[in-house]
Amino acid sequence: MPSTLSSRRLAQLALLAIVALAAAVISVAAATGGHSESGPAEPDSWRGLVGGPHPEVPVGQRMIVVLRTPSLATRVAAAGGRASEANQIRWHTAALAAQRQLIARLSIAGLSLRPEYSYSRVISGFSAPLDARAIALLQRFPEVEGVYPVRIAYPASVSSRLLERDELAPGSGVRARLGLPGYTGRGVIVALLDTGVELGHDYLAGAVLEGVDILQEDDLAAAAPNPVEPAALERHGTQLAGLIVGSGGPSGLSGIAENATILPIRIAGWQRDAAGRWAVYSRTDQLIAGLERAVDPNGDGNALDAARIAVAGVAEPYAAFADSPAARAVRGALALDTLVVAPSGNDGPAGPRFGSVSGPGGAREALTVGASDDRRTTEHVRATIRSGLRVVFDGEVPLGGAFEPDHALVLDLADPAPRDQLRPSVLGQTAPAVSVDDFFDGDGYSRVAGKAALTPAGDAPDEAAAGAARAGAAAVVLHDTRIPAGGLGVDDRVSVPVISVPARAAREALRLLRAGEKTTIEIGAPGERENPNAGRPAAFSSRGLAFDGGLKPELIAPGVALLTSHPGRTADGLPAFGTVSGSSAAAAVVGGAAALLAQARPDLDARALRGALVGTAGIVDGGSGRRVDLGAAAAVELIAEPASVPLGHASAGGWQGTAHFSVRNVSDRPLRITVSIGRLGEVGGAALAISPGRFTLAPRAQQKVFVAARLAYLPPGAEVISADFELRAGGAAPVRVPWTLTLGRYERDLLGGVRLSTRSFTPSDSAPALLELRAGRLVERGGRSEVLPLSHLDLDLWRGRERVGRLVRLRNLLPGRYTFGLTGRGPAGKRLEPGRYTLRLLGYPPGEGPPSRQIVEFTIR
Q: Which helix (H) or strand (E) is 585 found in, with range?
C-alpha cells in the first residue's frame, strides 16, 4: 500500500455541503489538503483496487441535525438498559414530537423544512436539505446540539473473481473458517446494512428476510439492477450475506453462521454520481436510517425486537470522528443492545497516529474490523524484459488479474505515451488515471495492438489495464505500483495477462523504447508460490487510531479472496459464486462469529459480546493485529467496558492524565480479579497506576477501575504508546484491554491560506464577499500520510473589543480548502451597521488541544 494519499483521493473526501455564515453563506468546498507526493510504492500495493478511487458524489445541501431531545437509546440507557414496550413507544413518540415542534417553529420563522430521514431511536434528529438561512437559524435554537455535513459511504470491498464450478473444489480459494462446535447461529438475527441482497440465491435460501429498503422506502431489500444496464445487479450485499449465513454451497462451502437469519437493510445502491451516472454508494444519513431500523425492524418505536448484530458493509473514507452523527448512532444502537460491526476501511496504514480509519468504524462503541490476507499461496509468473542481448529485468512477479496464460508469451513492449510526451516524472510517483485514449495516436491507431503495453498504473490500475486491453494489447505491464496477486480480480474488459514490474526496470525499458530500440518481454506460465504475508493484515486494510486516540481496528479477520455467493447464475443455470476482498468482507466474517457467540452465550448483551470478542482475541505475530478466538470468547467470565481505552495526549514531559474502565463479571460465580499493567507499572516511558488492582466481583456485578498515567519525558521519535491491561481471574486465560497514549506537540497550523475577496463591501445576499481558507492538514510522518482534521471550526464576529457573536460552527472537517460568502449579516440575520469588523477563526483539533487561530478584518460600507 502506498504510504501517501494522492490529492485526487483527498479531493473525494473533502466536505461538499452548503454551510451557513450568518444568514447566507455559500460554501464551495474543499479540494485538497496540502501537497503530497508518493514515494516508491511498497510491495504488493492495493492502491486503486480495493481502496478506490470512488465515484465523486454530490450531497448538495444535505445536513444532519442532532437534537438535545433524548433519543430512545438515551432513555433506555438512563433506565438501566431495561424498559417496557409501552415506555419505549412513548419515548419514541416524544422524540418525534420534539422534531415536529422544531420544524413548526422554523416554519413560523418563514423556513420550510422537509426532512428526508427522521431519527428517534439511535439518535434524536433528522436530515434534510438546508439552505444557509435554515442552518444559521437552527444553530441558534437551544434544542439543537449540532448541524453536521452528510458524507458519502462506499461498499468496503470489491469482487475479485467470478468462479467456474470446477474452481470451487475443496482447497480452492479462501474459506473463512471461524466456528464454534455445536453452534450455527440459530435464532440470532444479523442486520446487514448494505446494498440489496439477491433473495432468491440458492446459497441463501431460507436465511434472508425480506428486509427494508431505505433508499426506495420499501419493505423488500432486493438487489436492484442498474437503471441503464438491467443485467448489472448490486453485488455487495449478496456477497456479505453469503459470508455470514450461506449454506449448502459447492464442496461444502458455507458461511460462518449458516443458521442465523439476515435482516437485509438496503442503505446503499444505485444512485446518481456527480457526473449524472449511476454508481453504487450510500450516505451517512441513509446509514443512520438503516441503524434506526436495525434496532426496530418493524418500525413501531419499540426496540425489544432489535437485531443482535448489525454489520455495516459501507465505510466513510478517513472519517474516523468519534462524535459524528454516525458514531453517535452506533453508540445508540449499542445502548439498545445491538452490536455494530464496522469495516476499518481499505486505505492502508497511515499515521503513526491518525490517518486512514473510516467511519463509522471510528466510533468507540463500534467493533471495527480490518482484513487479513489468509491466502496460503498466490499466482506468480516469471517475467523477462530484454533489449537485444541485454536483460533489463528478470524475476517472478504476481499475476495481477484473473486471466492466466496457458503457455509462455513473447511480446514486443509498447510505450503508449507519444514521443513528445515522455512523462518520466510518473515513474515511482502517483500518476493520474490512465484512459483508453492514451493507447491511441492522433489518427485513431492503437499503439499497443498485439503487444505488451507498458503503462503507469495511476490512481486506477483496473482502468489502465482495461484501456490497454480495449486497445488490443496482448498483455499489460503496469509500473509505479506493484499489483498484488489477484488484485485486479475478474474484469470482463481484461482478458489478457496483467503484471507489474519495478519502477527502475520500467524506467530503463521506456528509455530504450523511446530511443528506438526494440524491447521484448517474456511472460511465463503461472505457478503457485507461498504467500509470505499469510495471516497478517492485508496491505490495503486501514489501521491506526481513530480521531479520539482509540486503537482501530480492534480485530482482524480473513478479508482477501473469500469464496461467497454472487448475484445471478452461470451459463449452465447454476447459482453464481465468486470471491470478494475488503475490510467489509472481514467485518461480515466477524459479524457471523458474533452471531455464534450470541447463540452460545445468550446471557451476554451487546457490550459484553464486544468485550468478549476483543478481550480474548489472539495477538498476531509482531502485534500487527488481533484475531478472534471464539472458543476463548465463549468461555469468558469477565469483560471490560469499554473494550479499549485511550488515555489521552501527552504534549510535553510531566504530563499526567486519568481514565477509567469497568470490569464486569459475566459468570455465575464470584471472581477474584487481578489487573496488571506491565513490568513495574511502566510501559514505553509511561508510568501507570491502577486502582483497585485486586478485587472480588460477585456474579453479574461490576467494578470501576481507575487509571492514573504520568509521562516524565517525551520518548524520542515515539508518537504513540500502546499496550494492554490484563485482567485475570484465577488460572483462566487473561482478558486484554488495549490502551493507547498519543505523544507530541499539538498541531497548531490547522488553519491557513485565509483570503478575503474584498476588504470593504456593502451587505448583499446575492453577491457576498468570498472568504477562502484551508482547514486541517495532511502531513508526512515517517513516510506515511497523516490526516489532521478539525473537530469544529468557529467563525466569531467582533467589532472592536466587543464580541458580536458566533456566525457559524462547522463540525468534523477533513483537510481541504473551503470558501464561504460573507453577506454582511450578523448572527441574528440582521444587516450589520457600517463600520470595521474582525472575523476570528478558531479551528479545534479532536481532543483537548488548543485551537488554531486566524483573523480577518473587513469594513461594511
A: helix 583-600
